[in-house]
Amino acid sequence: MSANLSTRTFRPYTGEKARIARAYDYLVLVLALFLFIGSFHLHFALTVGDWDFWVDWKDRQWWPAVTPLIGITFPAAVQAVLWTNFRLPLGATLCVACLSIGTWIARIFAYHLWNYFPINMVLPSTMLPSALVLDVVLMLSNSLTVTAIFGGSAFALLFYPSNWPIFGMFHVPVEAGNSQLTVADMFGFQYIRTGMPEYLRIIERGTLRTYGQVAAPLSAFFSALLCTLMYTLWWHIGKWFATTRYLKRI
């Protein structure tokens, strides 16, 4: 005798089975969260790398251009999933919060407590204000085009101003060895890292100095233009990755 699956009723678990099922769901959720934190942190470390890692690499040219461009990738993909399927306007904020958790864990335990670098030298940047604005634009507009143009641009343009209260003190000029450096440069000269002397760099040097000391705004607007394109690309990547497909029964 064969049972007809179309008429079979599925009863929810009760008692001990329900408790085990809930515990299993919680375990999978926690593991998935840590997997997402690790994947986003690895992606960010391999692409942005030293520009967002060492304080003496946080210049006014490449740091405000590269960091938002790479940081908008995972938020755009997760927004496509959460907003399209669940109407939850928190994809970007969730991604950046997960990245902050993973980054702080790595910087404190791996580089401050293990390798004895000062925590000021390896401070991570923040993108929470940019992520909040990106989520708000998506919630109010409900449009991919509007969010890519205005939200993506705001994501890049807000990065440098929101980080200036944290890292502005390291751009204070000091005099050492008859040369004018910054506090961040002094960190780089005092604490030796692998790959020296390639890691030694003066943070205020750059080809954009020829534009009249406005390197940071130029880099920010250049990153804003690219973020609009990167947001659209990763939105479609996230939507494609989360699409459920069914195979026809033969």
UniProtKB/TrEMBL annotation:
Gene3D superfamilies: Ammonia/particulate methane monooxygenase, subunit A. Keywords: Membrane, Monooxygenase, Oxidoreductase, Transmembrane, Transmembrane helix. GO terms for molecular function: monooxygenase activity. Its EC number is 1.14.18.3. Signal peptide: none annotated. The chain crosses the membrane at residues 21-42, 62-83, 90-111, 131-160, 214-237. Pfam families: AMO. InterPro entries: NH3/CH4_mOase_suA_sf, NH3_CH4_mOase_A. It is an enzyme of class 1 (oxidoreductase). This is Particulate methane monooxygenase beta subunit. It comes from Methyloglobulus morosus KoM1. The lineage of its organism: Bacteria, Pseudomonadati, Pseudomonadota, Gammaproteobacteria, Methylococcales.
